[in-house]
Amino acid sequence: MDTTYQIQVGQRGVITFPKELRVQHDIADGDLLTLIELPGGVFVLSKQHPRVDEIANQLTQEWQQGDESLASMLAALREARAAYDQNDSDPVP
């Protein structure tokens, strides 16, 4: 991931990925990419689709079935977020 590419924006906002990237990451016509806007004018493109809706639907289903309470789900979310933050702040070896 040491390579930087310049991509020109064409008419109607169309961009073309360099062939090398399309081949390396198996990007084909019609594939959907996720564009994430970060502060400071930074954009991230990902071929991986976010699973937020899928996870939210699963949590809703479990909650409606009575397997989980809202309080227990929020507690689990806090624990997962704390673990994520802990791992994110660990120095890279």
Would you give an account of this structure?
The protein is α+β, with helices and mostly antiparallel strands and 93 residues long. The protein folds into two domains: 11-46, no CATH class; 52-89. Helix content is 42%, strand content 11%. The protein is built from three helices and two strands; from the N terminus they run αββαα. It has helices at residues 19-24, 52-64, 70-89, and strands at residues 34-38, 42-46. The chain has a two-stranded antiparallel ribbon. The longest helix has 20 residues, at 70-89. The two termini are 18 Å apart. The mean pLDDT is 79.
- The percentage helix is 40-55%
Largest sheet strand order: 1-2
Report the sheet with the most strands, covering strand number, pairing sense and barrel closure: 2 strands, antiparallel
**Order of secondary-structure elements:** HEEHH
Shape: elongated
Mean pLDDT across the residues is 79
As a whole number of angstroms, the C-alpha radius of gyration is: 19 Å
Strand residue percentage = 5-15%
Structural class, by secondary structure, is alpha+beta
Question: What separation lies between the terminal Cα atoms?
Answer: 18 Å
Low-pLDDT runs: none
